[in-house]
Amino acid sequence: MRLLLLIIALGLGIAIIKHLLSAKGTPPARENPPTAMVRCQQCGVHIPEEEAFHEDKLFFCSDEHRSQYRS
Ligand SMILES: [Zn+2]
């Protein structure tokens, strides 16, 4: 009977530890910062602002389109 209690206690202990570890191991749900999308003035494709080539307040998907737009 004692052995059974020990097994149950052990099982509960393992379950609790597993629960704590899984709770700890899971990174907090972090949403990606919203990336501003901009539109290429030359071809109209949408690209993340950080990847865009820009001139003044205009954005372009590539350096090529930037120079095409200027000409
Ligand atoms: Zn473009």
Overview features:
two-stranded antiparallel ribbon; single chain; binds zinc ion; 71 residues; rod-shaped; alpha+beta
Give an overview of the whole structure.
This protein is α+β, with helices and mostly antiparallel strands and 71 residues long. The protein folds into two domains: 1-30; 37-70, no CATH class. Helices cover 45% and strands 17% of the residues. It has helices at residues 2-25, 63-70; strands at 37-39, 46-48, 53-55, 58-60. The chain has a two-stranded antiparallel ribbon with strand order 1-2. Strands 3-4 form a two-stranded antiparallel ribbon. Strand 3 (53-55) and strand 4 form a beta hairpin. The model has no long low-confidence stretch (mean pLDDT 89). The structure holds zinc ion.
Q: Determine the N-to-C terminus distance.
A: 89 Å
Tell me, rounded to a whole number, the average pLDDT.
89
User: Helix-strand pattern, N to C?
Assistant: HEEEEH
Low-confidence stretches: none
Structural class, by secondary structure, is: alpha+beta
Number of domains: 2
In this structure, how is the largest beta sheet organized? 2 strands, antiparallel
The helix count comes to 2
Count every beta strand, where a strand is a DSSP E run of 2 or more residues.
4
> Which bin fits the share of residues in helices?
40-55%
Strand content: 15-25%
Strand order of the largest sheet: 1-2
Bound molecules: zinc ion
Radius of gyration: 28 Å
| Cα shape | rod-shaped
